[in-house]
Inverse folding.
C-alpha cells in the first residue's frame, strides 16, 4: 500500500467533503485522524524518494549527454533533474501539490473544488489548500504553467522557520541555473542561437558547422563533487577555482547532496535511499566511463548520509 498515489489515497475522503472539512477532521486526535496522518507522512516520504531517484538518474544522464556532445538535450535533462529534486525536497518536508483524476467515483459524487490541492504538515497541523488559495498564500499570481507552482512553492522554502542550514543551501535554493525560462528557451525557441544553439550553423559549410559545434565539447572526467579531488594531480599554478564553481553540473550535484544531508538529519530508519543503490545506478549508467566522477559520487554520498 505504500506505493499508492496521493490522489488515490485521498479520493475516498474528498468525494463528499470539502478540503476545509478534511483539514478539520485531521486536526482531531482520534484514532482515525492519527492513522490518516501517519499514512500521509509515509506517502510524502515515498513520493520524495521516488522524485529523488528520478533527479539522480537525470543528473547521471546529463553527464552522459554532455560527453556525447548533445548540448541542448543535456541542458533540458539538467532542468528535469532539478524539477524532480524540487518535488523530492518539498515532499521530504511533508508537503505535496497534486491533481485528482477527473473520474466519477462509484457513488457518482464529485466535488470539483477538490481536484487540485496542496497538503502540508507544518508540525502543528496539516494544512489543506485549493490551488487558488495556495497561489494567494505564495503571492505567486495567476497560474503560468504546470511546473510553475512547484517552483513557487520551492522559492518559499527559505522562509520556513528552523530550516536546516547547509553550506550550499543558498546556492541550491536559487533558480539561477536550470530554471523554467532557460528550459523553454533552449527547448522551444526558434530564434537564432537560442534553441539548439549548437546546431545553428547548418547553413554554413560542414567545416564551419563542426567548428562551432565543437564548443559543446565532451565533459572531462574530473570529480565535480569535491574541489580538491577536482584538481587532483594538477599543477597548482594551473588550478583556477572558477573552473570548479562555474560548472553548471554543480547546481545538480549540490541539489542531490543537500537532499541527502537533509535526509540524514531526520534520523529515521529507511532502506529506500542508500549509498549502495546510488552507487549501483552510477555504475549501471557509466560502466567504465567517468571513473573519477563515479568514485567521487560514491565518497560524497556516503559522507552525506553519515548520521549527524
Amino acid at each position: 500500500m505504500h506505493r499508492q498515489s496521493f490522489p488515490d489515497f485521498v479520493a475516498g475522503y474528498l468525494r463528499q467533503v470539502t478540503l476545509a472539512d478534511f483539514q478539520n477532521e485531521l486536526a482531531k486526535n482520534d484514532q482515525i485522524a492519527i492513522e490518516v496522518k501517519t499514512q500521509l507522512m509515509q506517502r510524502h516520504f515515498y513520493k520524495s524518494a521516488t522524485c529523488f531517484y528520478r533527479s539522480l538518474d537525470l543528473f547521471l544522464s546529463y553527464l552522459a549527454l554532455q560527453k556525447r556532445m548533445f548540448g541542448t538535450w543535456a541542458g533540458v535533462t539538467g532542468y528535469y533533474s532539478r524539477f524532480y529534486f524540487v518535488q523530492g525536497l518539498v515532499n521530504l518536508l511533508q508537503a505535496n501539490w497534486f491533481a485528482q483524476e477527473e473520474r466519477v467515483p462509484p457513488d457518482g459524487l464529485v466535488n470539483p473544488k477538490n481536484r487540485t490541492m496542496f497538503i502540508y504538515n507544518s508540525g502543528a497541523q496539516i494544512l489543506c489548500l485549493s490551488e487558488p488559495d495556495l497561489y494567494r498564500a505564495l503571492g505567486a499570481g495567476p497560474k503560468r504553467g504546470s511546473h510553475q507552482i512547484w517552483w513557487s512553492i520551492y522559492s518559499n522554502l527559505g522562509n520556513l522557520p528552523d530550516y536546516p542550514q547547509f553550506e550550499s543551501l543558498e546556492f541550491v535554493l536559487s533558480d539561477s541555473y536550470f530554471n523554467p525560462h532557460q528550459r523553454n528557451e533552449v527547448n522551444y525557441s526558434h530564434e537564432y542561437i537560442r534553441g539548439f544553439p549548437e546546431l545553428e550553423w547548418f547553413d554554413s559549410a560542414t567545416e564551419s558547422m563542426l567548428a562551432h559545434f565543437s564548443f559543446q565539447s565532451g565533459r572531462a572526467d574530473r570529480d565535480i563533487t569535491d574541489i580538491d579531488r577536482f584538481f587532483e594531480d594538477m599543477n597548482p599554478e594551473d588550478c583556477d577555482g572558477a573552473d570548479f564553481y562555474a560548472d553548471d553540473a554543480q547546481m545538480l550535484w549540490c541539489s542531490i547532496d543537500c537532499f541527502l544531508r537533509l535526509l540524514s538529519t531526520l534520523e529515521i530508519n529507511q532502506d529506500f535511499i542508500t549509498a549502495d543503490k546510488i552507487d549501483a545506478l552510477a555504475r549501471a549508467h557509466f560502466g567504465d566511463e567517468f571513473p573519477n566522477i563515479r568514485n567521487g559520487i560514491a565518497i560524497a554520498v556516503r559522507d552525506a548520509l553519515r548520521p549527524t
Notes: The longest helix spans residues 31-67. Residues 26 and 33 are 5 Å apart (CA to CA).
